[in-house]
Design goal:
Number of strands: 2
Largest sheet: 2 strands, antiparallel
Protein name: Transmembrane protein 179
Distance between the termini: 71 Å
Membrane topology: Multi-pass membrane protein
Subcellular location: Membrane
Strand content: under 5%
Order of helices and strands: HEEHHHH
Number of helices: 5
Shape: rod-shaped
Oligomer: single chain
Family: Belongs to the TMEM179 family.
Helix content: 55-70%
Keywords: Membrane, Transmembrane, Transmembrane helix
């Protein structure tokens, strides 16, 4: 019982942290997409033009940004539901509920690691282009580097936004590992308890059946004094 309580409190704490980290993914990434006029910065490449010093950008697919964004929303919703569910839990979870928790933990783990990889590698590709002209990627933030005829790209906060998103994604991956391990431990513990209960029930049934069989196979006892008194000829 004490182990179950510790694991339950650990799950609540883990989902609270995951709830916060999901906001670190969704909010800055949404702001960056808005400032870049719905263009994805991740894996975007280009060349610096000699005539005007502007960055001739070749935008990458928006899917590199939308997948981490969807992941953050998914983690936000699942964490909120799980926090509410665990906080109101009074009875022991069923095997099906524990199995669903393990499956959700695996999904969160897979989506968070893919998002973290997309953000990290994609940001490296973007910064490689920026460092061709600037001493560091951070110093290029806020510079007028992309010319747009119909849209104005705001690069003032992309370094902080992507840094925060990257922190949220890797933090969500680490927390998802812990949540998945805890869910798996609870599933294994529940399975062991069920096996113990089944074994105890079978053993109890075996003992009951054995006692019943022994009772029927034992011949009835006849009192020696009664038998001798009935056969005594002097009475």
């Amino acid at each position: 019982m004490a182990l179950a309580n510790v694991l339950l409190l650990s799950q609540i704490a883990g989902h609270v942290l995951l709830f916060i980290l999901s906001l670190c993914i969704v909010l800055p990434l949404s702001i960056n997409l808005n400032q870049f006029c719905d263009h994805c910065l991740l894996f975007t490449t280009g060349k610096w033009r000699e005539e005007d010093g502007m960055f001739d950008v070749h935008w990458a697919s928006n899917g590199y940004c939308y997948f981490p964004l969807i992941t953050g929303v998914f983690l936000f919703i699942i964490s909120a539901i799980q926090i509410y569910r665990y906080a109101r839990m009074k009875e022991e979870e069923s095997f099906i509920a524990l199995f669903v928790d393990v499956v959700l933990g695996i999904w969160m783990l897979a989506m968070s690691i893919l998002s973290a990889i997309f953000i990290t590698l994609g940001f490296i590709v973007w910064c490689d282009g920026m460092t061709e002209r600037f001493p560091s990627c951070e110093t290029s933030a806020g510079q007028n580097i992309i010319r747009g005829d119909t849209e104005k790209i705001n690069t003032s906060g992309f370094y902080i936004e992507m840094g925060t998103t990257q922190f949220g994604a890797w933090g969500a991956f680490a927390i998802s590992v812990g949540i998945g391990v805890i869910a798996l431990l609870k599933l294994i513990h529940n399975h062991q308890v069920r096996n113990i209960k089944v074994s105890m029930y079978l053993e109890r049934q075996r003992l009951v059946n054995q006692q019943h069989y022994d009772g029927r196979s034992t011949p009835p006892m006849v009192s020696g004094s009664g038998a001798s008194s009935d056969s005594d000829p002097n009475k």
